Amino acid sequence: MQYDQVHSFLIQKLENGLPAYLTYHDAGHTKNVIEAAGHLAIAENISGNDLVLLKTAALFHDAGYMQVYKGHEEISCNMAKKHLPDYGYSTDQIETICRLILATRWPSKPSDLLEKILCDADMYYLGTEHYSFYADKLYQELKKIGAVKTNVDWLLRQVEFLNEHKYHTKTALRERETQKQKILHNLKLELESSFSASDKMKPTEIFQDVLLILIGVIFAGYALKGFLVPNHFFDGGITGISLLVHDLYDFNLAIVIILLNLPFVMVSFFTISHRFALWTLISVVLLGVCLTLLPSVALTNDKLLISIFGGVFLGIGVGLIMRAGAALDGIEVLALYTLKRTSFTITEIIMGINILIFSVAAFKFGIETALYSVLTYFSATRCIDYVVEGIQAYTGVTIISGKSEMIKYQLVNDLGRGITVYKGERGFLPGKFEISADCDIIFTVITRLELRKLKNLVYNLDPNAFVFANTIREASGGVINRRHHH
User: What is the pTM of this model?
Assistant: First the structure.
């Protein structure tokens, strides 16, 4: 085996033939792996022909990068089979070299000592003081091929890789494992710091949230002092309880609302987030200030207008504050907490709690007042839904059709919508269970105003198409936010 000659041949080929974007998997990496393999081999008592085969495998293990990036190991084997016979390597020796090369595929599962040595040599830098230097070279390479985009992506990839990586030989474990664990620990700390930094709000975001809270508080205060309080109408939640207490005992409404909400603000501090609790406290205090400053003047005596528009203005105010990441009512805090653990919507949770409140109102102030208060609550919750979830109410539509190609073309080019295609089978009808065919299952997101147009488009192409739709609470990204003319 003429190792020195094939080494000179292939190193020169790598230096001239590897793409320029390979900043990590370059000829220098191959030289480092050969050196590490030789060091580990001596420490593990490998010598003679086995040592030559090991170093040859290290020489060829990344040669396939000259042709492809993914799956380069197979190309490396093909290159070894092509060139090594010219340098005195037998068929059996080349097969051994190929087996060693394929063992370096991730995740590596080496089966014998030579495979373990080559796998450890390929990753020997992981536990050295030069880790950052080589990691940066790999980062630049992965960025150029689009495998990572941000520093946080790269930190996540490193932590995941080092968590999964294992050295296989006793020598590598002794020499590299301790330092590798230190590097992993530091990367985890850096990753936590990056997440903390990204979680901090930008000044523009803070301004936007503060503006939403101020507008929301004004709307809510206007609804209470201009509609509900002068006419002795009620709402649900802590606001409804506060109105009851105010009417029954003539306590200051602003103080009652703040005091009754404080326990829920404290709960949200520990169960939801510190930021949520802070914004909620600010919102409740501002509402108290607003109620103190605004005069209590009945804008109308029409009970229907009071119940509807009082609820509308209150719902707009509450919804805007919820969009800012806060809540104006302690019951909403409880609902948001419960939402994480149930399949109910915020509206459904609040309605269940408010049944008790309206029952008390009916007993104390009469059934008519309670029923109008329910209408106020209904108006408010509908407005909350529109403000928080969006007026457009996006709809997800799934289409199964034998004419999927035509439908896909029309959805993209006529409706201007992006689509996702799943591969499936259609058929399996009663009495014809054995009959089926491959088909494309099309999924797209539209506004509810486009639903009729989409159905007409699909059924004009395929009257037998199966179409079903479901409401999407919130959607962003892609092409759904582009303005469409209906």
Answer: 0.51
